[in-house]
Write a structure and sequence with these properties.
- The structure is a single chain.
- The protein has 226 residues and is mostly beta strands.
- It has one domain: Jelly Rolls (Sandwich), CATH 2.60.120.
- Helices cover 9% and strands 37% of the residues.
- The protein is built from 2 helices and 16 strands.
- The protein has an 8-stranded antiparallel beta sheet with strand order 1-15-3-13-5-6-7-8, with no helix packed on it.
- β6 and β7 form a beta hairpin.
- The chain is globular and about 40 Å long.
Amino acid sequence: MKTFILFVLVACVYQPMSANAGLTGKSLIFPAKTDKSYVQLQPGMFPQLSAFTVCLRAASEESRNYVLFSYATSKEHNELLIWQNSDGKLSLYLGNKIVTFSLPKINALLRHICVTWEAREGVTTFWVNGDRTVRKVGKKDTTVRGGGSVILGQEQDSVGGRFDSEQSFVGEITDVHVWDRVLTAGAIRAVSQGCYSAGGNIIDWATIPFIAGGNVSIKDNNDCAV
């Protein structure tokens, strides 16, 4: 009997954390610079990509470098990374290729940000509140590897971990979506206005399973358009 009781207790202590599902109408609040706070999004499948659109809303008053979206694989921890520089430039990292755009620095007002990329010509474009930047040529004739780890709030130096507080996000993130194609200009404008009915076919904010770690608050977001 004693052995049985011990087994039950050990099983309870080591029971894995279960994922929550869906963030409709919710924002993630990262209140402080730390290497502990993160949210891991868990799509059922993250396939190999020859094109993508990543969209999110974000606000931050930080004036340093930080990450907005981190996707890492066992081959490359910067497989797909969206980065805000201290001088206000937004960058897309695809492995060892970085494409940087001069844009107004993210501030306390939530703004909608999308980035699109396609492999054949490497065309990379940022969109802010439905308006696009100049197109630039980034990494081409390649693919984004599948099966990796998606983290918000931290930059991964290995799959799912090795966080650095100096690269952590402080602020608010919501409405994260990922598609396996380049959305049209009209669709991106509709997404930015909250009028695009279909969420991302890889990551859909409304249904995505997730795990939150550290000091992350999940709050109702009453400001999003419906």
